[in-house]
Amino acid sequence: MFFRELDYIYAVNIFSVISSPEVDSFWFSTLLVYDISALVEALSAIILIVLFLMQKFGTSRVSFLFSPIMGAWTFSTPLVGIYSIIHHYPGIFKALSPHYTFHFFWRKGKEGWLLLGGTVLCITGSEALFADLGHFNRSSIQMAFLFTIYPSLVLTYAGQTAYLIRHPNDHEDGFYKFIPKSVYWPIFIIATLAAIVASQSLISATFSVIKQSVVLDYFPRVKVVHTSSNKEGEVYSPEVNYILMILCVAVILIFGEGKDIGNAFGVVVSLVMLITTILLTLVMIVIWRTPSLLVALYFLVFFTMEGVYVSAVFTKIPEGGWIPFAISFFLAFIMFGWFNGRQKKIEYELTHKIDLERLGTLLSDPGVQRVPGLCFFYTNIHQDGLTPILGHYIKNMRSLHKVTVFTTLRYLLVPRVAPEERIIVRKLGLKGVYGCVIQYGYADTLNLEGNDFVNQVTDCLREHIEKYLDCLPSNPVDIQEEISALEEAKLSDVIHVRGKTRFYIGKNCKRFDRIMLAFYEVLHSNCRSALPALSVPLSQRIEVGMLYEA
């Protein structure tokens, strides 16, 4: 946390001023310290705001700076650590012996257990490695950690410990005080830049997690922009970015003391490691079918070690550790409310789906007219049915276009879809009724404006009609008539129909479902559309509303 480190530095500098003979007023010195703290908090907030505002440009634009910054940090701090070890306490590596660990806890008892809550921050940052999987492969991360990051951390912390053995009263700001004065400001600049880079990795991790949650339909739909054309993991979400910015700045201004924020971070990291151990154990048992003995050895060792850390860190909950819990419960409530509403929607659609036989019955009604034109009806096409909005539309409009293409937009986890695989069409067995699936990757742009999209779909339909009817004992005249009807419909009129559903909460609805569905409606009304942003002219758009009875 760079704002905490800055706070300590400015406090040390100002104490050196107010302790001079010229300034001996206690109230004046207290006021100066308060002003410096406020200044540090304001500067920290400004740095974070600038960092969040730069997210829309993507990490690829500035990522060329990350490697030099982290390289300077990785290789400079262990050099300072080696200097501190030689200068203050060359025998510091005796601390690696389990003998001293056992002796420490045996002598300190409960106090030693509580001190674990202060050392857990030494291993923070490892959780960001999971976010880096979206940018680097596993081998590169393993090599970077084993050959650079891990040795650097060991030497740096060993150097700080050697310094603190000789200067035990400097434990509150051990990092900056163990740095020699001749290299103090260069290390300070490198540390601040490294903190910004570390913050960037966590911001990118947040975007990746939200994007995966949206794809799995566990989170309200937000805008997700891929800032790289060849890396699927580099994403940006404007809504998430600005909400995260407001929360971070609020935490800094409300909990300005770095100790509380450090406690909150420690609680999160320790819990992440413990939960990861439990989940990995389940994966080893259920998926990997690992032998029971190996699973037991892994679980007992890591669960015991991490459980002790978690138990110690939990004592910090009243001192700022409650912050991540409050945010987590709020996000969990949003995710549960959204998932519950989506499940209710899927259940209703499966119960009231329109199959092809039912569609044929509706179209055979003498009161239903087949009006001229080409209609793209956006829906999720199932093998055994269509959306109930279709039946609602036909019953109320009493019509359907002579050529109707039920269109589904399918997102694929690839940069770009090959042109020959982009549009897949099929005949649904009814006159003038077709199915169309448009596949696109995260680097593709969907622009349905103009006649280009319509021409592409109709060309694919023409080829499909010719191939489909060639396989049947049909008259070539039938083929020509269907193709002519398609061309005539395209020239007549083109419209795009999309559904917009809401839940009707009836009197028979249970109180719990009533509350959760009302919350889902609030989320659904303020989230992005299920369809991507399509540049369809307003004059060609039709939205069909329908109430789903809960």
From TrEMBL:
Q: Where are the bilayer-spanning segments?
A: 31-53, 65-86, 112-131, 143-163, 183-203, 240-258, 264-288, 295-315, 321-339
The way it spans or sits in the membrane comes to: Multi-pass membrane protein
Molecular function (GO) terms for this protein are: potassium ion transmembrane transporter activity
Q: Which domain of life is it from?
A: Eukaryota
Q: Which UniProt keywords apply?
A: Ion transport, Membrane, Potassium, Potassium transport, Transmembrane, Transmembrane helix, Transport
A single cellular component GO annotation: plasma membrane
K+ potassium transporter C-terminal domain sequence ranges: 372-548
User: Where in the cell?
Assistant: Cell membrane
The entry sums up its family as follows:
Belongs to the HAK/KUP transporter (TC 2.A.72.3) family.
Protein name as annotated: Potassium transporter
Q: Origin organism of this chain?
A: Citrus sinensis
